[in-house]
């Protein structure tokens, strides 16, 4: 019985085992599924979406790291998820777009945790500066504005990065469509939470992606389990659209998404997902470090 389970797991993940970890990566050209640390490598000592959390993820060997960027009304682009995270880390109740340059210089994201060092809200230039030239940054759009694409592209160029180092994601279809129209060189990821009370239509999502020239369809991992089949995922890929998932939080989530043939998995606890992969019989180490 145990042997049958192991053989079944190996069959499910056979596509993962065929390739060795690349020495470098470019968005759109990685040959095997990748695990993407969500907001960097963070824990009780290092707040998420800080320069330190992002640097730690790359130092651990991550090919791609996911982050979030807002454009404030004062013209700065900052890396933080939501106002709830700001309040959770600092106790400050303030909208992210309303953050002032002084706020960004003085707010300590480790304040409520009693950490021995100070963690600031990073500016986009500070994040871009720690992205290795052979890795990828997944930048999620938050607080989109008409100035956002130009500011974003300027930050990429300032850091000496190219479009192969960048992929832009968003839940906002209109934001992705606008950015892609203005900067078609960047690959884009459409983040979607699939409704469980509606039948999945691959044709509908393919049409949506095609209209906005979106490169990657990326539903929430838990929402794929009940509504998507491997045939659905294959149809999306056959249409020339990559298929990834976000929000991997459980072993079963991971297993189900892998069965659909996802090429990327955005996950909160990166190291734990590696353990799940091993438990399922995978020799899976998609990191640049050997």
Fold and architecture overview:
The protein is of the alpha/beta class. The protein has a domain at 2-43 and 62-68 and 134-279: TIM Barrel (Alpha-Beta Barrel), CATH 3.20.20. It is built from 13 helices and ten strands. The chain has helices spanning 2-12, 14-17, 51-59, 83-90, 101-106, 124-128, 148-158, 173-182, 202-212, 221-227, 230-238, 251-259, 270-279, and strands at 34-37, 64-71, 77-79, 136-141, 166-170, 187-192, 216-219, 242-243, 245-248, 264-267. It has a seven-stranded mixed beta sheet with strand order 3-2-4-5-6-7-8. It has a three-stranded parallel beta sheet with strand order 1-10-9. The radius of gyration is 19 Å and the shape is globular.
Summarize the structure.
This protein is of the alpha/beta class. It has helices at 2-12, 14-17, 51-59, 83-90, 101-106, 124-128, 148-158, 173-182, 202-212, 221-227, 230-238, 251-259, 270-279; strands at residues 34-37, 64-71, 77-79, 136-141, 166-170, 187-192, 216-219, 242-243, 245-248, 264-267. The longest helix is centred in the N-terminal third of the chain and has 11 residues, at 2-12.
């Amino acid at each position: 019985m145990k042997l049958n389970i192991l053989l079944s797991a190996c069959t499910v993940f056979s596509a993962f085992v065929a390739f060795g970890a690349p020495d470098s990566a470019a968005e759109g050209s990685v040959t095997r599924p990748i695990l993407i640390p969500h907001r960097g490598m963070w824990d009780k000592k290092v707040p998420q979406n800080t320069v330190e959390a992002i640097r730690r993820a790359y130092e651990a060997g991550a090919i791609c790291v996911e982050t979030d960027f807002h454009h404030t009304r004062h013209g700065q682009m900052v890396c933080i998820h939501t106002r709830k995270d700001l309040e959770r880390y600092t106790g400050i109740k303030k909208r992210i777009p309303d953050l002032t340059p002084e706020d960004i210089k003085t707010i300590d994201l480790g304040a409520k945790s009693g950490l021995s060092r100070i963690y600031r809200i990073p500016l986009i230039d500070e994040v871009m500066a720690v992205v290795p030239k052979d890795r990828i940054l997944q930048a999620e759009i938050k607080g989109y504005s008409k100035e956002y694409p130009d500011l974003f592209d300027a930050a990429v160029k300032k850091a000496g990065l190219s479009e192969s180092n960048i992929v832009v994601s968003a839940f906002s279809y209109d934001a992705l469509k606008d950015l892609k129209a203005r900067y078609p060189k960047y690959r884009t990821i459409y983040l979607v939470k699939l409704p469980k009370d509606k039948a999945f239509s691959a044709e509908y999502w393919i049409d949506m992606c095609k209209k906005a020239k979106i490169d990657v369809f990326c539903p929430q991992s838990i929402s794929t389990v009940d509504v998507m089949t491997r045939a659905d995922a294959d149809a999306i890929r056959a249409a020339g659209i990559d298929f990834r998932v976000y929000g991997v939080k459980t072993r079963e989530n991971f297993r189900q998404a892998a069965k659909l043939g996802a090429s990327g998995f955005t996950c909160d606890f990166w190291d734990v997902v590696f353990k799940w992969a091993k438990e399922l019989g995978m020799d899976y180490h998609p990191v640049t470090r050997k």
